[in-house]
Design brief:
single chain, alpha+beta, six-stranded antiparallel β-sheet, 2 helices, 10 strands, globular
Length: 171
Amino acid sequence: MLIRVPREAARMLDHLTAGLTDPADAGDGCHRKIDNTGGAFMPVVVENIGGDQYSVAHYGEQNGDAMRDPEMVFWRNDGAWFATYWRNDYAHVETTSVYFENGKPEKFAPKLHVEHTDFAVMWMRNIADQQGIDPAEATPNEAVPLLDALIEDVESGRRIPVVERTSGSGE
């Protein structure tokens, strides 16, 4: 079973993404940069990257290039948040824990998904502290049981296969 991001982190994600529009709607409201620190900490860039998927990232610069430090992608489904992707350009690491087809999860890597969710909890807490954001301003999500070997697509009743993490630093 996919793991929902726990309540405190979910509230923070609700706050960060509030009002962002789908980029397919041809507007400028699909992203925002949050910097409440006067340069003391890295700004947070939040973007709707299509449908129910959102990117949250810190960006640094190296040799004139934007570097994700890190970036995470979250999927929002029925009011719940799921961590699906993590990337750090400085470390040359990119990992995907939930794979999608036609906007629905097709398969996932359970151990990596747990790691993504754990990191998301810590990172959302850090972002809240660094940016002076009170995540209690957003609507809470309820926590659900942790891990099962399969997830079930409620609409179709089909079971989604599990994939294990590949060796090395990425896919």
